[in-house]
Write a structure and sequence with these properties.
The chain has 160 residues and is of the alpha+beta class. It contains 8 helices and 4 strands; from the N terminus they run E-H-H-E-H-H-E-H-H-E-H-H. The chain has a 4-stranded antiparallel sheet with strand order 2-3-1-4. The protein binds guanosine-5'-diphosphate and magnesium ion.
Length: 160
């Protein structure tokens, strides 16, 4: 029996974070995971897969009809991605800040895109843009039994 630590519901916000095919090919999976781990966020789901056209179309549904949409879906389905669910206080907004601006050339150094990317269509990582998007994306990419329930013993050293 482990010690369980009561956690505020606000500390259990979740975001869908995905290393895109270029991030996998460039061996940046560990780098992305490291940054979220070291910040103190909790990994609750992770898998590697080559996305189907169907899942890509739904995932990027908000961009359907835009000129770059076919290229975007073609690219995201072109190779393996690492799909993840991360949990923690304000993870959606903070995750976006850690990832950086959509255009890597406008991303601040210190962000993932600002440190590792140049082109818009090769910006390494996806992160949910709102709590609603996160819930939709997590449900799209993961079944409930693929998300682990556990209490990291480090929690009281991260949250006061
Ligand atoms: P994100 O939420 O920061 O990833 O950005 P968006 O949701 O606006 O766009 C989704 C992804 O489509 C981005 O991460 C880019 O890889 C790509 N993308 C967005 N806008 C453009 C564009 O104008 N041209 C191209 N080629 N790709 C784009
Ligand atoms: Mg987006």
């Amino acid at each position: 029996m482990g010690t369980t630590v009561a956690m505020a519901a606000s500390n259990q916000e979740r975001s869908f974070i995905m290393v895109k095919p270029e991030g996998v090919q460039r061996a940046l999976v560990g780098e992305v995971i490291k940054r979220f781990e070291q910040r103190g966020f909790k990994l609750v789901g992770l898998k590697v897969l080559v996305p189907s056209k169907d899942i890509a179309n739904v995932h990027y549904g908000e961009h359907e009809g835009k000129p770059f949409f076919p290229k975007l879906v073609g690219h995201i389905t072109s190779g393996a991605v690492v799909a993840m669910v991360w949990e923690g206080k304000d993870i959606v907004k903070t995750g976006r800040a850690m990832i950086g601006a959509t255009n890597p050339l406008a991303s601040a150094p210190g962000t993932i895109r600002g440190d590792f990317a140049i082109d818009l269509g090769r910006n390494i990582v996806h992160g949910s843009d709102s709590v609603d998007s996160a819930q939709r994306e997590i449900a799209l990419w993961f079944s409930p039994d693929e998300l682990a329930e556990y209490d990291p013993t480090v929690t009281p050293w991260i949250y006061e």
